[in-house]
Specification:
The protein is mainly α. It contains 14 helices and no strands. It has two domains: about 5-125 and about 255-329, no CATH class; about 130-235, no CATH class. It has helices spanning about 10-40, 45-55, 55-75, 75-90, 95-115, 130-150, 155-175, 180-185, 190-210, 215-235, 240-255, 260-270, 285-290, 300-320. The longest helix has 29 residues, at about 10-40. The chain is globular.
Length: about 325
């Protein structure tokens, strides 16, 4: 008697959707946007740019196509973040899971630098697999601390320190967002805003701390320290999605039993990275169709390898048609 397959989308189906969304987004960046950058004077003001496009309808159409491709691309990271949590929960070896991510993050770095910077070595930013790796390490550290923090109830000090770290980390994410910086411009001093915001978050967290038991305070400490550590690692190394990406993975892990809520909060975290990221909330549609099965058997390294390979292929296309250039450093 054969086992009846569940209706819905398998894990591999979600990986294919994420990969295609990423391919579309990167095609826009590496080929279409690079082409438009050569022909469209984006330094023009809004009215002047609108007039330029009215005189060049073909370029205006390409610009609209690029925008649509980028919106489709917003599906990629949330799906990968969700699948990282699924993989983490079902892997036989967390050590090997993290090791595979680390290996392919390193393998992908040169293709990433070549595709997006036109250089073999471009240390200014790192690929998204590093962000996924930091998310896995963050979760692993959270679990470790939950098991090993002392259970003597004397955790008020570490809770207070964690509350400060949470405030600093959250305000850091807000004030590294250019959209929010523009919103504050001329209205309030950024330093005052940073200090006030940190103080408010700290105060609220401390008040909550007195209302909850020592077990929940330990859980809070076990969660915040790894989040700040690996989130800041993402921002310091300037990985794709950085601290916001690590935080989104962290939230999806904490709320893994409540997918709807997990996606709403994760998208709120990604939102400050740009208005387009709000479109990622639609990712919840395929996730809700997820049937919990792995799907058709495929080589487990296929989707790892897809990332660097598609970057090199897109770059070669852009190089052949004369859009991109190439330098060593």
């Amino acid at each position: 008697m054969t086992e009846e397959k569940k209706i819905g989308l398998s894990g591999n189906a979600l990986k294919i959707i994420a990969s295609m969304a990423m391919l579309i987004d990167h095609s826009a960046i590496i080929i279409l946007d690079a082409y438009l950058d050569r022909l469209v004077p984006f330094y023009l003001g809004e009215d002047e740019l609108s007039m330029f496009f009215s005189q060049n309808p073909g370029l205006e159409t390409l610009n609209k196509v690029s925008i649509i491709m980028h919106l489709i691309g917003r599906f990629a990271f949330p799906l990968y973040a969700f699948l990282i949590i699924e993989g983490y929960e079902h892997t036989r070896s967390i050590k090997n899971y993290a090791k595979n991510l680390a290996i392919f993050a390193l393998i992908s770095e040169i293709p990433y630098d070549i595709a997006f910077e036109g250089k073999v070595i471009a240390p200014g930013r790192q690929n998204v697999i590093f962000t996924l790796l930091f998310g896995v390490l963050c979760i692993t550290f959270v679990r470790y601390l939950q098991k090993n923090l002392k259970k003597d109830g004397k955790n008020i000090l570490t809770y207070g320190i964690s509350a400060v770290l949470l405030g600093l980390f959250f305000m850091h994410m807000i004030l590294t967002d250019y959209w929010f910086i523009d919103l504050l411009e001329g209205k309030i001093d950024r330093n005052i805003f940073f200090i006030a915001g940190t103080a408010i978050i700290f105060s609220v967290t401390v008040v909550i701390g007195f209302a909850i038991g020592s077990q929940k305070r330990r859980d809070f400490v076990a969660a915040i320290i790894p989040l700040v550590l690996f989130g800041m690692a993402g921002d310091i190394l300037n990985t794709s999605y950085g601290a916001c990406g690590v935080t989104a993975i962290f939230i999806m892990y904490l709320l893994k039993k409540k997918r709807n809520l997990a996606f709403v909060f994760s998208m709120l975290i990604l939102g400050p990275m740009g208005a387009n990221e709000i479109f990622a909330i639609l990712t919840i549609i395929p996730v809700l169709k997820y049937n919990g099965e792995r799907g058709a058997k495929m080589n487990k390294y296929f989707f790892y390898a897809f990332y660097p390979v598609h970057l090199i292929l897109l770059y070669l296309i852009s190089l052949i048609v004369g859009i991109s250039t190439f330098t060593i450093y």
